[in-house]
């Protein structure tokens, strides 16, 4: 007979419900409460040491930490991810961010005042500010810019258009395959 196999299934569930909570009661305190309930309901329960071994065997460490200490404690169990950029050739991936200035100006050809936007570019491989990517093109409306890479992918900034791109709706930056 396996250790813990004589535990009434209902008693085991009651014990887990009591033990696996964020108040973090001790195993001993939960066992004392389980003994009282076992007497009332006629459940068969093993010794406290057997229950402790069953907890260790059947409840994984991440689940135990999540239920007893919370999500932040669970996240601290795992190391932070580190990005490896060694496989990215320099000058092929860029990160761009635009800043809309808090001033209004009159541009030639515009009907009214507009707020200018300045774009800053960073080469992902070097983590350094850089010039705008080469082969930058804009469509006629000015709402769409594409930057061609040596691999034939384009990084596309779209204001409102939709299409077969792999888009991120928050940043409106898309990766689209480009014909050679």
Features:
22% strand, 180 residues, alpha+beta, disordered C terminus
Short structural summary:
By secondary structure, this protein is an alpha+beta fold. It has helices at residues 9-19, 27-41, 48-58, 61-69, 71-76; strands at residues 94-100, 117-123, 128-130, 136-138, 144-148, 153-158, 166-168, 173-177.
**CATH class wording of the largest domain:** Mainly Alpha
**Global Rg:** 30 Å
Number of domains: 3
| Residue windows where pLDDT falls under 50 for at least 5 positions | 139-180
Straight-line N-to-C gap: 70 Å
Order of helices and strands: HHHHHEEEEEEEE
Strand order of the largest sheet: 4-5-6-8-7
Percent helix: 25-40%
Largest sheet data: 5 strands, antiparallel
CATH superfamily of the largest domain, by name, is Homeodomain-like
The average pLDDT score comes to: 75
Strand content: 15-25%
CATH topology (level 3) name of the largest domain: Arc Repressor Mutant, subunit A
Number of helices: 5
Summing up helix and strand content along with how strands pair, one would put the structural category as alpha+beta
Large-scale geometry: elongated
Question: In total, how many beta strands?
Answer: 8
CATH architecture of the largest domain: Orthogonal Bundle
């Amino acid at each position: 007979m396996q250790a813990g196999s004589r535990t009434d299934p209902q008693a085991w569930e009651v014990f887990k419900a009591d033990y696996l909570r964020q108040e973090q009661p001790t195993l001993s305190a939960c066992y004392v409460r389980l003994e009282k309930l076992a007497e009332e309901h006629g459940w068969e329960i093993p010794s406290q040491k057997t229950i402790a071994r069953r907890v260790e065997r059947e409840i994984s460490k991440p689940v135990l930490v999540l239920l007893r200490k919370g999500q932040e404690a669970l996240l601290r169990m795992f190391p932070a991810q580190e990005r490896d950029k060694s496989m990215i050739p320099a000058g092929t991936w860029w990160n761009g961010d635009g800043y809309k200035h808090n001033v209004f100006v009159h541009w030639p050809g515009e009907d009214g005042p507009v707020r200018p936007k300045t774009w800053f570019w960073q080469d992902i491989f070097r983590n350094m500010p850089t010039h705008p990517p080469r082969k930058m093109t804009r469509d006629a409306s000015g709402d769409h810019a594409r930057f061609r890479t040596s691999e034939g992918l384009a990084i596309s900034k779209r204001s409102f258009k939709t299409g077969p791109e792999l888009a991120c709706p928050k940043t409106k930056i898309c990766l689209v395959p480009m014909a050679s």
